[in-house]
Each structure stands twice: as structure tokens, then as C-alpha cells.
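Reagents: none. Just compute today. Origin recognition complex subunit 1.
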Amino acid sequence: MAKSQRDLKGWQYFLDDAELNNTDSVNGEPTTPSRRSRRGKSTSSQKISLKREEDELEIKEGDFLLVQQDNNSPEVAIVKEIKFGNDNFLDIIVSWFIRMRDIEEADLPKVEEYKERSQLNENELFITSYLDEVKLGEIIDKVNILSEEEFNNDIVIDDSNKASTFICRRGCDSAGELFTDVFDFRDLCVLFEKNHHEFIEFIRRKTVPVAYNANKTHDKSKSIKDKLDEVETKKPKQKTVSKQILDEEEENNDSSDEFESAIDLQDEPSSDELESDEDASESKNKSPRKRKASSKPKAVKEKQKRVKIPNNHSKFDDESRQFITSVVSPLNKRMKIKDSSKPSILALSPRKPKKGVSKGENGKNGSLGVDASSEAFKELKEKLHTSTRLSSLPCREDEFTSIYLNLETAIQEQTGCCLYVSGTPGVGKTATVREVIAQLRELTEMGELNDFDYLEINGLKLLSPNVAYEKLWEKISGLKVTASNAALLLESYFSQDTPRKPLIVLMDELDQIVTKKQNVMYNFFNWPTYSNSKLIVIAVANTMDLPERVLSNKISSRLGLRRIQFIGYTFEQLGSIIKHRLDMLTKQNKRKVIINSDAIGFASRKVASVSGDARRALTICRRAVEIAEKDFLSSKEDPGNEQEIENESYHVQISHISKAINETVNSPISQFLMSLPFASKLVLAGVLLRMKRSGLAENSLGDIIDEMKNSLTMLTSRDGDKVLEAIDSKMTLIDLLYGNGLLQNLDSTFNSKDTNIRILRFKYIVNELVENGILQQNVRGERHSLINLNISEEEIVSVLKRDKEISSIL
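Predicted 3D structure written out:
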């Protein structure tokens, strides 16, 4: 990359264009291109090559380079394109390789050559589809990359060629986690020479997960040979079309500049599409925008409308529609099939394949600096993030085994069943179920288990509980229908004895799917009891006895006795979870940044005393690392300490953990909750207690009022007299809050039985909490209105437990 011609100092660039090299046959001078040739010439045909004046190193498209960015270890890349840019004078686009040393051993393909770390070839590279820009000053030299056959037959690695000769036989994604099958790298180079856009697209389709590439799954099975044949067949057609259009332009003598034919308007993408998808636009070698005015544009359009686009799913869709009609039509129902659009490929922005290097703006490293300590801090924060993929789930072995055995048995026996999983938030319920599904998938791929389908429904993501019917039917048939029709179709589908694979449905956040009639949950728990359904339902909720408290007997009985409870993590388990993530660090970063065991124990005990939520413990540790990193950077600014700091390890101590905990304690929401009066805290305590008893996120205002009074009565019986001793030895909190006021309570004629149903100013208290975003209320002031928390339950619990008067209620 060169931002201006000034940045090209020490380099020369050449335009490899056959037309520019043409000379007049008579006088040897360059000829001026005719208007016809200039119009027919595409700027994309000009290739740029570079030459370094110092050592005459020449660089062109397809060369393999050794690049060193920001004082990091050199990496290998292939030059995809050298072109004149919009923001920069010259852009050098490369596709990165990942070295073997940057791949975690657990992520390598499970094949014989990668079985032991000692047998791995350190000179093996993995090609990726990740594109990036490099600067001219970052280019070190060229390297050689060979195929497996060339490397094994002709090359002996020694000190002379160890840093410049490599082997490539697989590709992978930018994270180094998904790998392609073995290929011949020389065939891949031939594909690059023919079309470098198809080269990148081929690697991308082989390494992008199927979930992000659902509409192109058929390309997964294509080999390099197939892709080469496809490119060969495409080339003549494109040239013919371009030539025909160009000839038509010449015949009209450029008199039709303001017109475009119907064919070209349909085939050529708009300018907005060209800007949004560079790879797609460059792969289509279109001729210039001038077009011949079509004499019969309408006829051409009508002809194009009759062209039938092949659809691989048409037969499957027809069968699904026929089944829908047979089920819905006899009941005189109006069938409505929703518009279903295929999932588009997500606009992923993969991180750079070089692990441990994070690029920021302008090609520089992020704000953490470029030294090893900053990279260690960055990796440590990544491993402590709650979304980090783990190779195993520590401290959940028993629960994992129970779920695994239940699902494996149901799949093998081709029967339906219900499994109820409960536990407080953050104890690993959903993660454990997903890990079980992943393990079962591996058994299926090895042929040791029957194949099955899997669907995940999250109650928080549904607009209404009935949408669950639509999700399930869409998974089965591929068509979207209305909820009412989907319920009928599902009932008929599970009643019929037709060949089908077992279907596992994970219903997360079950308490959000509860309705007044309970018909949604009844159907989902009833269908597995059908003899031919092969439906396996895993219900996940936050309360163990939710079926008994909320559901009717006919629903709770269908859940059976297959119940698995996840209890909150103890401080020892939280410490094990944090240490497990720290073990995932590289050896170099382990030595550079260390979290003291005392600090881990301090964070674990603090979280275990409140909720046992692993996510909260990881968040606190991650924030402590950020605070420690800030201290490290501030100490690094002192010039005298820079060399000493580089050679030492940095420790995350208890003080950093304490600061992170204090930040959560002293957050604006926590400070607001601490400033609330006793009556407002009593309302919040009533909400928490009611949620614990009912197992539901939403509870009626009347139930919360009753919970408040019952809890206050129990508190009064223990130590309520001591709270108001300074005012009156006979006065209790119920007299104060549910009476007609303090002055009336001090009156000798006041009867303690004459109390109100609600505490004084109750409506004002609830409105204050709603307006400040603590509670949500759908109908104000009504006893049957539903109340739910608008902030984290843990944040309220941590504040109320520090209040001496209210903590005894909880």
C-alpha cells in the first residue's frame, strides 16, 4: 500500500499492458489507441508489477511474500492484486497464510499426520480467504510454497531454506478452526492464474461454516478440478457476449449513448452493488456501459420473463405444499404461506489469521501497543470472555453425562421423550446441552449413531409463544406458515407414521413461553408421547418446580421424572472454571501476564456468595485484567522502567479484582438502588421473592403486594421491634407502613388491626421504580397488572443484601 507517490520511494511500478507496449511498425514510436480499442479496453486488464531498486526484487500478482508488520514475527501471504486505489495511490491486496505454530493443537483436523505435536511440520502453511492490505515497507522477501508431492520428493529442509520454503496442502478459516480437505496446491495456483477471484471464493466456501453458507452448500463438494473446469467453461461465454455487444456499438457509431438494452439492464449490476460487493463485481468482465438501443426492448423483456430458473428445492417445496393443503383445506382454513427468503451469507469480518496480532486503524496495532505484554493482555481478555469457545465444560461432568445418556438412548431407540433442565442463570445449562449436541453430531458423522435434526427455540426471541409453532414447522418442512396453521400441520405430522429422523428441540427460557391457556407448552410436551413422533424436547428454565407451580397436572405429568438440576457454582468450581480458561493461553503469554491464585479465589468467593454465576465471575476477572493493563501502560510511559517492564511478568492482584467489583457495586444503578427508602426496597424484595416462588419473570401486582406483607410480618416477628425502639417500643414496621401515618400510630386510640391493604404511597413508589427503569408494568395501578424486572436480578440482590434491614427478608 502506498498512500501517495512519495511513498513509492525506492520502488518502481510497471503497467503490464499489451496495448501500451504496442509500437508503430514504421517509426518504432508508440501508437495512439483508436477510439474503438479504447472503448473496448477494460481497465481491469492492466496488471501492475513492482520492483524494489535496492535489490531489484520484483513483485506481481500470485507471488508469495514474507511480510513483517509492526515488529511482529514475519508472516506469509500471496499477492492477490496490485491496483490503483481510491483512497491510496496504490493498493497491495494479499491473502494470508496461517503458520502451523499459530494453530492450536485441539483445532487441528483429527487425522494421523496431526496426531502428535512432535510430528507436525513447522513449515506447513494453511491458506485462508482473509484479504488484507500491506505496505511496501513491510515486504521482506519472496518465499517458495510447494505442494505436498513437490515438498516430499525434491526438498530437504535445512538452515539455508528453512525460512523461505514452505508446504501447503490445506486451507482454513481466519480463526484457524475450520479446515479443508487435502488438495494439490499446484492445482490451486493454476486456479489463481485463471481467476484470482474464484481462487479466493473457492477457499471461502470451503472454510465458511454451513450456517453462514446455507444457500451454497452444493459448492462444498466441488474439488479444484471441478472449479477449473467451471472457470474454463465460463470464459468463452463472457468473451462472446462482450464481443457481440462491442460490435453492435460500433455499427451504431456511438449514436445510442443514452439508451441501454433490456438484456444489459438486467444482467449488469448497479453501481451501488458494485461498491458493496467488490469480489462479485470484479469477477464479471462486463463491457463498457454504452449500449445499443434495442429495436424491440419489450419483446426481449417478455422472452426473458419466460426463462425458468432451476430450483433444487422445488420438488421438496411441492411435497410440503401438498401436505399443507391436505391438512388445512378439509378444515375450511385459509392457508397463508409467508414469504421465505433464503438466509444470506453473513457479512463476516474475520480477524486476522495471525493469532496474537490485532490490527487497528491505518494498519497499526490497537491501543494496547505492539509489545509482547500488550498481546498477552489481549489474549487473556479473549479467553476470559463469556463467548469464548471451550474444548470442555469443567465442573459439569455429571449433568453432561445425564443429558448425553438420555438423548443418546432416545435417538438409538427412535422414540420421543421430554427432558427438563433447571438452574439459576449463568450455571451452564444451555452451554452443556449444546456441547452434548456437538458430541452426538460427531458420533453421527462417524456412523456410530443414527442421524438426527436439531432446533433451538429461545423464548426471549419470540414475539409471542405461538411463534414457536412456526419455527418448528419451518424446520420440518422449510416453509413458513401462520401460527394457527402450523399447529394443525404439526399435529397431523406427528400423528402420521412416516419415515423421519429424530428431532431434538431445545426450548430455552421456558418461563417466557407460558401462556394463560398453556396450550403451547402442552402441545410441545404432548407430541413426544406420540408413538411415531420421534420428537425429543429439552425444556430449560430457571426454576426446578416450574411445572408444579405454573403448569397444570396434565402438562407436568408429561414431563415425567427426567429432570436435571444445575445448582449454582461454588467458589471452588468458579476458581476451576477461571483456571481452565487461563490454561488455554499460549506459553509465552502465560509467563507475561499472571492472575494470582489469591485474586481468583477472591473473585470466586464474592460471586459464589451472591449467585454462583460463572458469567459474572468471568466478567469481573476480565475487567480486573483491563484495570491491570491500564496500570501496566501507565508504568510503561516512564522511560526508565521500559526495559525492565519488558523482561518481567505482570501480576493481576486482589486490588485489581477489588476495583472491578467496586465498579459493579458503585455503578449508577447500584447507587440509585442504595439511595431508595425502605418502602421502595421492600417492593423490590417482594418482586424477587415472588419470582423465586413462582419461577416466572412476570408476576401480578397483587401477588407482589401479598408477598410484601407476608415477608414484613415474618420480619416483624423476629427483630422488627428493635428497628423502631427509638420512636415507640410498641410500634412495628407494619404499623408504620400499613397504618394511616406516624401521628395516627402514636395516638393511644389507634387499633393495630386497622391497617391498609397496601403500604402508604404505594402507587407513587411503583411509578418511581417504573420511571427510573427498574421495573416494567404493562397496566398501571391495577392488581392484575404484570410486573417484571428491567435490570439484572443479581444487581438488585447485591444491593439489598448490603442493607441490614432488608437483607433478612431475602
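The CA atoms of residues 380 and 585 lie 7 Å apart.
Action item: order primers for follow-up constructs.
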